[in-house]
């Protein structure tokens, strides 16, 4: 069977939507209604520009959805976030929504192994006048986190941390991030519903990449669900985001 046809069949069977699909809602019409009624016309111009630029990139499906961007922007304002972190930048759509939400002296430590994709979005971020809030580090996030954890002054110093990178490391990131986020602060883990495959039967014929990451997500979801140091809220926005509020 051709790869595309196979993917389509799997998608129908297990709710693993096609690349580019940005909602877990049952009806595409309902999702479209949300976007058209309350999202698109309120999307800040630089975000629209960045979204359109990203749409021309082969890995465009990696970016968070437009409604998730709107959600994160409001969330960051509600919690008065000032010192934040992002693991997994890609072209910077979630980074820009964060940067726009923070006060002028707000900070984002942003990490990605790929600088080239970040540089696609960077001119738009600069034009939006928020690039000064961003400290971009190219390379794997883990060594940076290990360095941060070594210094006690970084402990409990972040208001918000968005994790949207290598799913196999979410569980390892969590061990470090729980030290770095403030008590009362938030960590957001993205893609925790993994296109609905978290409920696919164990023997479902999923593509290897989907299955492997689904398994990592299942492990992290289980761990977060019983972690006494946090309160959690799993939201079906985008591909699922689990918000973890540190309570001790
Ligand atoms: N948040 C981004 C957005 O809204 O456009 C999407 C991020 S994309 C899903 C995941 C990113 O994680 C990729 O750009 C990839 O290069 C990056 N990544 C993968 N492994 C990483 C690692 N070990 N450390 C840091 N970044 C990593
Ligand atoms: Ca994501």
From TrEMBL:
Keywords: Metal-binding, Methyltransferase, S-adenosyl-L-methionine, Transferase. Pfam families: Methyltransf_3. One of its GO terms (biological process) is methylation. SUPFAM superfamilies: S-adenosyl-L-methionine-dependent methyltransferases (SSF53335). Its cofactor is a divalent metal cation. InterPro entries: Cation-dep_OMT, SAM-dependent_MTases_sf, SAM_O-MeTrfase. One of its GO terms (molecular function) is caffeoyl-CoA O-methyltransferase activity. It catalyses: (E)-caffeoyl-CoA + S-adenosyl-L-methionine = (E)-feruloyl-CoA + S-adenosyl-L-homocysteine + H(+). Belongs to the class I-like SAM-binding methyltransferase superfamily. Cation-dependent O-methyltransferase family. This is Caffeoyl-CoA O-methyltransferase 1.
């Amino acid at each position: 069977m051709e790869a595309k046809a196979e993917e389509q069949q799997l998608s129908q069977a297990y709710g693993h939507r096609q690349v580019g699909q940005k909602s877990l809602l049952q009806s595409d019409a309902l999702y479209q209604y949300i976007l058209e009624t309350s999202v698109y016309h309120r999307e800040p111009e630089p975000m629209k520009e960045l979204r359109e630029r990203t749409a021309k990139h082969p890995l465009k499906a990696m970016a968070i959805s437009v409604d998730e961007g709107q959600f994160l922007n409001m969330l960051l304002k509600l919690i008065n976030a000032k010192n934040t972190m992002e693991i997994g930048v890609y072209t910077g759509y979630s980074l820009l929504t964060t940067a726009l939400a923070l006060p002028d002296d707000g900070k984002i430590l942003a990490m990605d192994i790929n600088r080239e994709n970040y540089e696609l979005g960077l001119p738009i971020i600069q034009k939006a006048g928020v690039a000064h809030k961003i400290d971009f580090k190219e390379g794997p996030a883990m060594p940076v986190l290990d360095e941060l954890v070594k210094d006690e002054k970084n402990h409990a110093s972040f208001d918000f941390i968005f994790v949207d990178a290598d799913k196999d490391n979410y569980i390892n990131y969590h061990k470090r991030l729980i030290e770095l986020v403030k008590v009362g602060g938030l960590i957001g883990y993205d893609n925790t519903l993994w296109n609905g495959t978290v409920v696919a039967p164990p023997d479902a014929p999923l593509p290897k990449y989907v299955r492997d990451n689904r398994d990592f997500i299942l492990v992290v979801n289980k761990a977060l669900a019983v972690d006494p140091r946090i309160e959690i809220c799993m939201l079906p926005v985008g591909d699922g985001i689990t918000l973890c509020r540190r309570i001790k």
